[in-house]
Every structure is written in C-alpha cells, then in structure tokens.
Amino acid sequence: MRVITRLVSSFRQTWQHLSERLGDAENLSTLLWAIPIGIVGALVTLGFRHAIDLIHLAAFGKTADVVELAQSSEWYMRLIVPTLGGIVAGFLLLLSRRYTKATAHSDYMEAITLGDGRIPVRQTLARSSSSLCSIATGSSIGQEGPMVQLAALCASLVGRFRTISPEQMRTLVACGAAAGITSVYNAPIAGAFFVAEIVLGSIVAERMPPLIMASVVANLTMRSLPGYHSIYSVPLFEPLSLSQDLMFILLGILLGALAPLFLWLLEHSRKRIDQIHLPLPVKLGCGGLVVGLISVFYPQTWGNGYSVINDFINHPWPWTAVAALLVFKVLATTASAGTGTVGGIFTPTLFVGAAIGVLFASLVEHLAPTLHAPTFTYVVVGMGAFLAATSRAPLMAILMVFEMTLSYDIVLPLLLCVVAGYYISGAFSPRSMYAVTAKNNELWKARNQTRNLKVKAILNEGAQTVPASATLEEVLQTFREQIVKFVYVIDENGLLVKIVALRDLNRAQAAGTLDANLLARDLPGHTLPLLHPYDNLTVALEAFLNHPGERLPVVESQACPRLLGYISKSQVLAHLKLYL
C-alpha cells in the first residue's frame, strides 16, 4: 500500500513539474489527449470505409469504387439502387429526429462554436447510418461529412468521461474533427488548418498544437494500416513560365465568379425542396431517383467524384464530355443535398473545380497554345481555388493542394489562382459552403467595425449645462430638476469652463464653506476624463475604467474644449460586446 501511495505521489510531483516546465496543466492535458483522439479518428474513418465496402458486397457482390460499380451495372440497377438507398436513408434520418434534443448541438461545428462540445450519441449514430446508406448506394454527396462527425463524436465521448472545462471539451472535439479530415484526405496540415480556419474562425497559436498533434497522429495511424495511399495520383510538376503562371489568375477569376452560383444552387434547392411537404423517405428517395436517372447515361455522377477527378488528372478527356458531366454532376449533387441527404459537399466541390480546370485548359490550348500548361496542372489548381472560393478558407485550400502534390513548383500558380478566386467570390457574395464560416465572417466584420467605431458615432447631445454667469441657486436648481450628478459650466462661446459635481457642493454646504453669492465659474471644480469625437471606443472604455459614473463629456479637442455632448458607459459596453 505504501508503495502505491509513493508511486501516486511521485506521479503527481512529476506531472506538476512537467506542467510548470511546459505550461498550463489543462493545455498539457489537452495536448496529450489529442494523441488517442487522433488514433481513434483514423480508426473510425477506416471503419466507415469498411462499412461502405460491406454494403457494396451485399448489393453488387463485389467491392470497388462506386463509379466502377455503376459502370459495370445494368441500367435498371443504376436506377434502383440510389432510389432504394435514399428511402432507407430517409427512414434512418426519421429515427435520428426521435433523438433530437432542443438544447443539444448535433453538428460538430455547432458543438464547438455554439455549444459545450457535447455531441448527442444516438442522434449522431442514426444520422451517420443514414449517410452511410446514401453514400454506399451512389448518392452524389461527400464521404467526409459523417466520417468527421463520428471522429468528433468519439472525441466528445473521451471528454465526457473526464472532469474538464467546456473550453477544453470544445478543443478535444476540434481535435477529433481535425483527425477525421486528415484521415479522409491524408493531409495532416490541412486537416488542422481546416478546423482552425473554418470551424474556429481564427488561427491562434494556443489552439494549434493539439489540432496538429491529433492530425499528425491520425495520419501516422493511417500510414501504419494496410491500403494507405495518396488520395489523388498526381504526376510530377515542372516549373512554368511567367506567362503560363499568369493564366492562372484568369482561371481564379472564373472560379471565383462561379463559386457563388454553385453555392446559390445548393442553397436554393434546399429551400425550394423544404417547401414541399413530403415524408423524409420519399424526399431522399426522390433525390436518389434523380441521381439514378442521370446515371443511366452518366454513371460517373455516382458518388463524390473522387475517382473521376483522378481520371481528369491522369487521362485526357474531350471538353464536350467534361462539360456535360459537369452539368449533370452539379444537378445530381443539388438533388442529393437539396433533399436533405446527410453528407458533405467538400469532395463534390473539388470535382467542380477540377472539371472547370479541364475546360479552361482546353480553352487555353485552343486560343493560346504557347501559354498552355499541362492539363493536370489546371485540374489540381482549379480544385484548390474553387475550394477556397466556396469555403472562404484560402490557407486551408492551399495547404491541402500542396500536401496532395508535394511540389513546390505548383505553389506560385496555386497562390495566384486561390487569391484571385477568393476575392472575386467574396466580391460577388459572402456565401460559404459552411454556415459556421459565414457566422464567423459576420462576427469578424462586426468586431472590425466596432474596433474602428468612433466616439462621435454614439454621441448624445443635450448635456446638462449652465452658463458661467449662473448663480449658485440656478446651479442647484439644475441639479434638482435634471437629477444628474454633474453639470457642465460653459462660457458664451460654448467652451467647457469646468465641471461641477453635486457631491462637492453638498460637502461644501455641510462644511459651511459655500458662499451663496458665488457664480458657476467660481464653484469648486471636479476633474473628469474628457473624450474627443475621433477617439476609438476602446479609449472611451479605458476612460470609464477610471471613472465610476455613467456619463463622460465629449469636447471638440484639447485645444478647443467646445462641449459637444456626452456618451454613456452602457452605450460603450453595448458596442464593444462583440469585440470583447
């Protein structure tokens, strides 16, 4: 027993010593817990993929990429499978609604940004099962959504069995999401920055270590398991000329202009279909039917588009076939997402960018052959730029493409294209594929506006003034009528002469030192901080910290103290609420 006690005591001392040397104990604990969360996130992703293979084995008698299964199936199977898959997914989605709680945030992004990090278990499992059925039966939706959600759920469960603060719980769930993204796309840096840039809305040094730890561990776990490979097979890049690089600015402008249209189609389809009151199984079944009808002629529209992107990169395609496939793929994705199918649109977005890249390459080859770069360059860069334009996360998109190619030569055209696409899309619309990104952007704009807000914007006129020639009785009458603590004495030009406090007058009267014949200019003065119309609200807040009252006067300038009015502490705090 003594040995155990000594071991426990020794462990506590060691832990305390490490905490003092490495930083706060909570931050160290979060960093260490990111390791098992990264492992679990990778295993969950792998398990989801195996579940898809099992459904394929049951439905088609073999396991293969969903596009390959569609191409090798009879036309009626292409029609029936997505429809039945949508119906089953709809019933599972109905089941998930039975477990919905008004106070819970089922989506991991909301659990991190709005909630306390707790993700409901039964609802998440039911929704993920619904998504599994849709994805395995060809729905034009991304696999990353349920995989990341399940990884985040596991992280939430880890935190739930420990006594931790809500902030630490949210960080653990963010680690789970980073591990999930990394495991799906084999991009550990982009996985960490996806959560930081999109979900958290800012890249803060204190938040990055656990996210990076979880991402790296998840990637190492995936590498140690059989079947690991790069998600996209990209040929070696060769340096491009300056004129070739500049062509990617035009591609970025095109992608930036089309990104808001793509997001509008997705949003509009959801709104219009929501207005149609049908049972969920019927709605999702109709979405599957649309995908099935399209796949009778274009089987490549099945799935998230991953295998077709690889084909774009490594094999030549006629532009007419790419254009037709692009139109029908967007239609299939719109039908799937619009009917409420659970899943992501990350990879379908990459598909759209890749297809537009192929079309742009064909156009450049036709109009300016000397400026034409290898087609796969336009494909890969187009993926990154369209992702940045739709997600409003340019850094994450750049890192993801760089990790997929591991080529420095692609950096310059990628940067030019991403920056152009990002700003052009923002000029047209602030939409993002993720609602949380739009909220973060709105919050950032509000904070920026508040930070630059001037005192004159909240200036109140009608400060309680008395002329310098007013008698003591007139000053006291002003205090009685206006019920204020201070009055401002001004001269005939409106310049502030002094500030008189009621408390000072009461004390002077009690001490018998107040002469009834005194004029306002001769009364005891009180010192208050003076604000100017072009001071920032942060300056006003600092002034209020040194003043217990509710109001402070605003004068034109220190050299010319013409009284303009006053501002109140409650106004300043109300406007600084977002910034703080």
Automatic annotation (TrEMBL):
Output the InterPro entries linked to this UniProt entry.
Answer: CBS_dom (IPR000644), CBS_dom_sf (IPR046342), Cl-channel_core (IPR014743), ClC (IPR001807), ClC-type_chloride_channel (IPR050368)
- Highest taxon of source: Bacteria
Keyword Ion transport set for record: yes
Q: Name one Pfam family in it.
A: Voltage_CLC
Q: Which residues cross the membrane?
A: 31-52, 75-95, 172-205, 246-266, 278-298, 318-338, 345-364, 376-399, 406-424
Give UniProt keywords alphabetically.
Answer: CBS domain, Chloride, Chloride channel, Ion channel, Ion transport, Membrane, Transmembrane, Transmembrane helix, Transport
Q: How does it sit in the membrane?
A: Multi-pass membrane protein
Cross-referenced CDD domains, in alphabetical order? Answer: CBS_pair_SF, Voltage_gated_ClC
Q: Where is the CBS domain?
A: 459-516
* Compartment list: Membrane
Q: What is its main location?
A: membrane
Q: What PANTHER family does the record point to? A: CHLORIDE CHANNEL PROTEIN CLC-E (PTHR43427:SF6)
Q: What is this protein called?
A: ClcB-like voltage-gated chloride channel protein
Species of origin reads Pseudomonas luteola
